[in-house]
Amino acid sequence: QVRLQESGPDLVKTSQTLTLTCTVAGGSITTNYYYWSWIRQSPGKGREWIGYIAYSGDTAILPSLRGRTAISRDPAKNQFTLELSAVIPEDTAEYFCAGRSGVPFRTGIDYSDPNDYIYWGQGIRVTVSS
Fold first, then answer.
1. Distance (Å, rounded) from C-alpha 38 to C-alpha 24?
2. Digits of tens for pLDDT over the chain (130 positions)?
3. Which of 91, 94, 87 is nearest to 125 (CA)?
4. What pLDDT, on a 0 to 100 scale, did the predictor assign at position 24?
């Protein structure tokens, strides 16, 4: 069974960089056709996909966050990491890491729908203070 666990700070100050790490157990982040995402939910709002890193190492980021977001991985530790720079109070949210299998040999598939992810961490609440 695949298990995910987020770790990182619960409080960051405006303009700082938020770094969150997801540790995956029970499966490898380099397993073919798997996609590993960061998703957040702000108070009173729906879930928002932030970006993913694929089994291949390719990444995709939500366009509105592309200028200050990076997702990387450490296969040796079976971890992937979110870096969100220049945070603002609106970045206050519960952050989740999640995983799903993709569709082999198909292009143009949308992997940004949180509803399609089957493996989830428990979430970590992050507050951005002004």
1. 13
2. 999 999 999 999 999 999 999 999 999 999 999 999 999 999 889 999 999 999 999 999 999 999 999 999 999 999 999 999 999 999 999 999 999 999 887 778 889 999 999 999 999 999 999 8
3. 94
4. 98
Q: What SS3 class is residue 88? A: coil
Give dist(CA 26, CA 20) in Å, integer.
20
Tell me whether residue 129 is exposed, middle or buried, using C-beta atoms within 10 angstroms of its C-beta: 0 to 12, 13 to 18, 19 or more. Answer: exposed
* Inter-CA distances, 101 with 2, 10, 31, 36, 125, Å: 12, 29, 9, 9, 26
Taking residue 106's Cβ as centre, other Cβ atoms within 10 Å add up to: 8
Which distant-in-sequence residues (6+ apart) come within 8 Å of 76 by Cβ?
none
Question: What percentage of the chain's residues is helix, strand, coil (to nearest 5)?
Answer: 10, 50, 40
- Nearest Cα to Cα of residue 126 among 98, 94, 97: 94
- What 3-state DSSP class applies to 89? helix
